[in-house]
Design goal:
single chain; about 450 residues; alpha/beta; TIM Barrel; 2 domains; 8-stranded parallel β-barrel; two-stranded antiparallel ribbon; 17 helices; globular; oxidoreductase
Length: about 450
């Protein structure tokens, strides 16, 4: 029987994806300590999650008013630690949980990314994943020494080269290149380690790579592009795709469309898993969950939404009045997460929404309270999505840490297991085992269409 995949959506920061989460009375505040993240890791592994995954940005939200003071004052994702380092702390207290992190193709170098994640894969016995992002605002550009952000499609063109370099380096060592024979004095077969010698429009990298292959071959590749260009990138490269579908009907349509794109790239659609974002608010009973949801609904502030919108859309929302419509030029010039802009237009029915419309129509900074209930009610909704063919699994976000994850594992996971929708236990040791993906073999990452180009 087909079973769903579960991903814990994490941030190496002072709050979850929801800036208001740090204000929740049940949220831990020792987020600068390893044990904060290690407790989350233990909870997710106890719930047999496929992986815990870190979203990341290279700047704090400071686009609103071109100032960071409000960010610090309100705790709006202002603490951002290196997620790969945090993952090593989580790896140390787990045996099976997959470990995923974001790293930008716009500002990092591919050799560095390839080495960091392949090392994490070895140190965790084959549990690592890399989330490929292109970065999205001028704050990140400024922190990384650039005057402004690259244009949207150019970022993806560079990302295509970047991932070719990373995957090419991961293929640099054959599986049996290491010998390590003290008696003969032979450490490895030099003919089984290959230079890359890549030269592209944006990037070049020579090699040979310095990290051998891991138990799963190389890390799983994650992507979450939502624009047309982003979806084409995912179809070509990704093995696990994060989405934010808004209802089962449209979700199934988008899911089917994306799987067709994967097939058109000459890839097996069953080897590309799609997980949609949700924020379950759960408890032992529906009444208890509704009480929890009522508290969570009171936590977000207007400044949270304004700051996070400015960051995500790379536009200073302080430059406009609350009820001042965006001009055609301003709407067309948005270069960040364009899917948010498009969703606001759709939800409000306005071609030129106001700042207030963006707050309401985007829901930015505010959990969607559309999955609230006891074990049965939440499991019913997840089953509807999964059995209805709208996804392969779910990215579980929390409105309080660690209780949001603990409640889900305590109340919902057993119900999903009872229905046969989710594993009773891990059946393998690597992340690819959990996701039902084959071991990565050298050269397998090249889609048939690409190989023919």
């Amino acid at each position: 029987m087909r079973q769903m995949h579960l991903v814990g959506f994490l941030q190496a920061q002072n709050c979850t994806i929801y800036a208001s989460s740090w204000r929740h009375p049940d949220s831990r505040t020792d987020f600068l300590k390893a044990d904060f993240f290690q407790e989350i890791a233990r909870i997710l592994e106890a719930g047999k999650f496929d992986l815990g995954f870190f979203d990341d940005r290279l700047s704090m939200p400071d686009r609103y008013g071109s100032d960071h003071v409000h960010t610090i004052e309100h705790g709006i994702r202002c603490v951002k630690m290196d997620p790969v380092v945090v993952l090593t702390m989580m790896a140390a207290v787990t045996q099976r949980l997959g470990l995923g992190s974001t790293a930008s193709t716009t500002y990092f170098e591919p050799f560095h990314v390839a080495r960091a994640f392949q090392t994490l894969d070895l140190m965790s016995d084959g549990r690592a994943a890399w989330n490929v992002v292109t970065s999205l605002n001028d704050g990140e550009a400024a922190n990384m020494g650039h005057a402004e952000m690259m244009a949207h499609d150019a970022r993806y063109d560079r990302a295509d080269e970047f991932i070719e370099v990373v995957l090419g380096h991961w293929d640099g060592w054959e599986d049996d290149a290491l010998i390590v024979d003290k008696a003969s004095g032979r450490f490895g077969d030099g003919h089984k380690v290959h230079r890359l010698d890549f030269k592209g429009k944006y990037l070049s990298s020579r090699g040979p790579f310095t990290v051998p292959r891991s138990p799963q071959g190389h890390p799983v590749v994650i992507q979450a592009g939502s624009s047309g260009r982003g979806k084409r990138f995912s179809a070509r490269w990704a093995e696990l795709v994060f989405v934010a579908y808004h209802d089962v009907k449209s979700g199934k349509e988008e899911y089917d469309e994306f799987k067709a794109m994967v097939a058109a790239e000459g890839r097996n659609p069953d080897h590309v898993k799609v997980a949609t974002l949700c924020t379950p608010i759960c408890a032992a009973t529906k009444a208890e969950a509704e009480d929890k949801a009522a508290l969570i609904a009171r936590l977000p502030l207007e400044i949270d939404a304004l700051s996070l919108l400015s960051e995500a859309l790379n536009f200073d929302f302080a430059s406009k009045g609350m009820d001042e419509p965006f001009t055609d030029e301003e709407m067309a010039g948005i270069q960040g997460l364009q899917a948010i802009r498009d969703r606001v237009v759709k939800n409000t029915g306005k071609k030129n929404p106001t700042v207030r419309d963006f707050i309401v129509g985007s829901g930015r900074g505010r959990p969607r309270l559309d999955m609230v209930g006891g074990p049965k009610e939440v499991a019913d909704k997840l089953e509807e999505w999964f059995v209805g063919g709208a996804c392969d699994g779910f990215v579980i976000a929390a409105a309080a840490v660690p209780t949001g994850y603990a409640d889900f594992v305590q109340h919902v996971v057993p119900e999903l297991q009872r229905r046969g929708l989710f594993r009773e236990d891990y059946t393998g040791s690597t992340l690819r085992d959990h996701l039902g993906l084959p071991r990565a073999m050298r050269g397998d990452w090249q889609p048939k269409r690409m190989a023919a180009e």
